[in-house]
Design brief:
The chain has about 150 residues and is mainly α. It is built from 5 helices and 2 strands, in the order ααααββα. It has one domain (about 10-135). Strands 1-2 form a two-stranded antiparallel sheet. A hairpin with a 3-residue loop joins β1 and β2 (about 115-120). The longest helix has about 40 residues, at about 10-45.
Length: about 150
């Protein structure tokens, strides 16, 4: 039977390789999900806040707050892409999505598309990605690096 031996240098190399893989994964997740959601936010800003204002008649949310949400959405996603206060920005996006899903997309909660499945899956996928970035942080490949409290 072969006995596996590992010296300290080999162990450090394996740990460093795992850390690099984690940092690559953080960057890919952070940038990929943010670019997709950024385009969604850009379209929202371009079409104006009227849809959301009309969708929230009973919630009592002021129009200024709805418009601020659009600006915050764009800014938070840019912060996530560049890795500046990525955890805080991802947490803000997660809260934004958690509020938007029941208020804006509630009619899609029990709807299915013919070919792609559940209508709400994309919004929940965005929410899950925001939560993962909030928990994981930006990683090494970001402007903030790994040393910042909110990265």
């Amino acid at each position: 039977m072969h006995r596996i031996t590992m010296n300290a240098a080999s162990l450090k190399e394996r740990v460093a390789s795992a850390d690099r893989s984690r940092d690559y994964a953080c960057a890919l997740l952070r940038i990929g999900f943010s670019f997709l959601l950024l385009y969604h936010g850009y379209l929202d800003v371009g079409s104006g806040a009227q849809f959301v204002i009309h969708a929230l008649p009973g919630a009592g949310i002021p129009e200024q707050l709805v418009k601020l949400t659009y600006i915050a959405e764009i800014m938070a996603l840019l912060m996530i892409i560049f890795g500046v206060w990525a955890r805080a920005a991802a947490l803000a996006m997660a809260v934004n999505l958690a509020i938007a899903i029941p208020f804006i997309y509630f009619d899609e909660a029990f709807s299915l598309r013919v070919r792609t499945g559940w209508m709400l899956e994309l919004h929940l996928l965005y929410l899950a990605n925001a939560i993962v970035v909030a928990l994981q942080g930006a990683g090494q490949y970001s402007i903030g690096g790994t040393n910042g409290r909110w990265n």
